[in-house]
# Entry
Amino acid sequence: MNYNKNSIRIAFLLIVITIKTVCSQPYLNPDLTINQRVDDLISRMTLEEKVGQMTQYVAFKHIQGVSGVAQLDDIENVNSDNEFYPGLKIADIKEKIKKGEIGSFLLVKGLDEANYLQKLAAESRLKIPLLIGEDAIHGHALYSGATVYPTPLALASSFNKELVKNIARATAKEMRLTGYHWTFSPNVDVAKDARWGRTGETFGEDPLLVGEMGKAMVEGYQENLKNEGVLSCLKHFIAGSQPSRGLNFTPMDASQRAMKEIWLPPYEKSIKAGAKTVMAAHHDLNGVPCHANDYLLTDILRNEWDFDGFVVSDWKDVFRLQTLHKVAENLEQAASLSVNAGLDMNMHGPGFHEYVVKNVEKGIIDLSRVDQAVKAILTSKFELGLFEKVLVDEENEKKLFDEESRDLAYKAALESMVLLENKGNILPLDTKKYKNIFITGPNANNQTLLGDWAGKQPDDNVVTILEGVRNGFKNSNVTYYECEDHRSISDEDIDKVKYKASEADVSIVVVGDNSFRTYWNSRTNGENSDRADVSLFGRQLDLVKAAHASGKPVIVILVIGKPTAIPWIKENIPGVLVAWETGAFSGTAVSDILLGKYNPSGKLPISFPRSSGQLPVFYNHRPSSYYRTYNDEETGALYGFGYGLNYSNVVFSNLSVPENIEKNKLIKINVEVKNNGYLPIDETVLLFFRDNFSSVTTPVKSLLAFQRTYLNANESKQVFFEIPYESLALLNKDMVWEVENGEFTFFIDKLNAVSRY
Ligand code: BGC
# Structure
């Protein structure tokens, strides 16, 4: 009885305390609007606390991992300096969290560390939760046990916006389960130079496709933000994906025309879709580093596009204004240049907090600029519901890689793969004819197929190509020869492959890239792993040639993160499949395609060059691009944008376009598509157009719209497009978008038809 009375008293007391706290600190009251809560909170913050929100740090386990101590419990006792924040001990960083001088973390290693950091933040005066960010660019892939989906370039090959949106949604869900709230994705730069190691992080060479995929990702990530969504981050603002010498960081010169026609539209579309954050790019644009570029970060983003989210720097790039670009004499000036240009949060990079505070005190940075940044950051934290619930359940890891995510990853892998060659219809493989299968190559049996920005996953969560083939070809005899990695293919390997291929009925040679950061030292591709030569790395072609020299048929599977120059393979190998880096179920998907259980439907979102000297090669070039030809190389792509074979004979007919295009009206176009095959197919219909004669030069072809349509065996369908007439606009000499009078040609597959405006 007494016990009950006491409990009631305690409960009553707690309610009174809560009501008092909420009344005295209205920002904790969920019944107020987010604006009211943000304004109240900002009014209580000191300058140091405000700048704290703009400051992001690398988390402890990562720091300690580098200096050798990796357990959270040990961190408590670690006293040594660390190479990330020289002069600071972990204990000092903990103090900073408690003083409210850090607002965000990246490189957090696991759910327990996320909770650990949040508990420290809860000890701060205002108890503002931390925003935890991560590069979850194709699934929560850096997290052990999460689902790894195909990389963005692979996904773009599916031309399936719904799929991309679903993957973003599923990624967000796994992030939130483990205490992460912000993904540094999508990359919506247009990529045209395969030497750049990060090409696979993009959606390819076409601005319309990139914009549509970016929009789909943003919508998926940010859906139901309060409970299951995460903030998206458009990057790297802007134009870093076609660096002049193929190298990350290289300066970029882009004309006003190129900016408006190519680089800005995907960002604008994704901002309009609601993207909450943007990351500035490493390089300088037309001589002004993107991190100190007010034209980009303020004029375009905020003034032109009304962006009210926040801009984060890239890794250490604020301080590279001094150390690399040499536009600031010291770090204090670097901080003021970037914040005044419109930067709101510093990713990593020591000293930022101190220098911004100093700059405000000296009147070099206006307090209103800081308030603008803090308002956007806090708004996101409230929208994410972090003030209501920030700790995650330790059991949540069990919910990762669930059935729904696995199905989605498998479907995505299937839809992303692109069939490049099928000479003599060698595929699907006739399992009666080809009983003895030999498989080899440096990508055949490891996790390189997860791509960049993925961590090592439990073996049970990944189906390698070898495993996929063994599981799929149950009645065949599958033999395997292991090549250690891409860099160490030896004469002995080559001889063995030739011999073993001659003993088999067919060989499957799995070659390509290693973008996987877990195997950092042997990488051939990925971030900061650019190449001067985009043919197959090392002696991989010799391996393919050896298998071919056996006289037996060869299938080449390309586990690649970007276009690769493979003219010899195109000429000589009957079956070639681009498997890209398609994540957890790459092996099952390859096997299903080889067996004909799935009709390949991917199409290239980026052109494959014949050789490195041709770069950049892309389909939507201006008319005079190939007026003159090389004297030592053919012109044009080896495989162009939109290319991809299947096991059906898909035939297009009756392309119908209006005779006249009317101002402000939709242009109605339709075409008949027939699947003459015995397997169903998801066919992507690509609609292109050309402005036949115009006042400025325009591309020979531009993508206008695309649509996937499911066709059963022998089925035919009408596919309808309704195109806003402004889609035909060009940027005239005065830099104004205008649809000019004249003729327009529309193209679908080999058909074309003309309309007048
Ligand atoms: C990359 C960014 C990434 C950041 C954090 C940088 O090196 O350029 O794209 O988001 O690291 O991992």
